[in-house]
Amino acid sequence: MKGTEWYQADEIAEAYDDKRFSGGGQFIDRREKTAVRNALGPVADKEILEVACGTGRFTVMLAQLGADIVGLDVSGPMLAQGREKAQAVGVDDTVEFMRGDAARLPFPDDHFDAVFAMRFFHLADRPVTFLKELARVSAGPVLFDTFNLESSRVLYNWLLPMGSRLYSRQAVESLLADAGVDLIDATHDFVLPYGFYRSLPTRIARPFRKLDRAIGSAGGGDRVASVSYWVVE
User: Which residue range or ranges hold the Methyltransferase type domain (predicted)?
Assistant: First the structure.
């Protein structure tokens, strides 16, 4: 996996949310949480697995909505942040945070009602292996996102310390076929890359987000979106 050592550093975990999801980054956080809720539907009393759960943004949100959820991640410091969040809002009894390898999930087939992985496939060095594992342990939908090759993400990617895997539409279709899963739904967003929003205060980012959504909803907007959310079974 790209950036494994960087991702597991204590200082990265402690500053992760503030650096990415404050200011203009709030628009990213809201959109991603909407994508998760839309893909999974009602989650009350369902067993959910989040792979690459990081600091537990989605894990804790779904626990608050009534899910019985497991958050798995390779980073101990990230998991520690998640546990603190769960305890702070009183859902630590319905959340289990565990350290593990997404390529070898320690669960039987069809164990969960749904599985998802956000902010993961752009770092994956074995995307087919990972997607097969996510699908294996899910009796229902699997959600994941990609950063897209035919978008402004290409320019932003040059600035990243570890780079990202970018996917063309053809590459995603090939990934789904190789993993033996069927596409159920797909949505696309963010003509402007994430890094642009994170660099702006909320009041300045807001009109850009409005413009971004207008461009995205116009004809051909999906083709220039920098992020795609895929739901498969």
Answer: 49-137
